[in-house]
Amino acid sequence: xxxxxxxxxxxxxxxxxxxxxxxxxxxxxxxxxxxxxxxxxxxxxxxxxxxxxxxxxxxxxxxxxxxxxxxxxxxxxxxxxxxxxxxxxxxxxxxxxxxxxxxxxxxxxxxxxxxxxxxxxxxxxxxxxxxxx
Length: 133
Description:
Blueprint: E1 3-7, E2 22-26, E3 28-35, H1 50-67, E4 75-82, H2 88-98, E5 106-111, E6 122-130
Parallel strand pairs: 4-5
Antiparallel strand pairs: 1-2, 3-6, 4-6
Helix pairs in contact: 1-2
């Protein structure tokens, strides 16, 4: 069994908007590589369409979590890499469709010059804690 604790606003720290400042738990640590908007054959999904790409990224994250016996409720940290910080609303829309409000992970967002393919707009990596097997 895992137990995760989320602290959205530690004393003396400005409130986080749409993320928790601190998350910890007990159990098995799971690291997910950065996921992009690629389908199972490696083709880009939603070229030029941030919302479509974000939904594909979260679907890929869901599949990776499932392979580890985890769900989005087990995610403690996400790092979002975007080619334009203006893409964050599209990412939040997809995230909100997958994550339970109030159980938001610690999150960082970083604008990068480029990803490994020019048509990709975002990449998201995640860490989770799940019950020991």
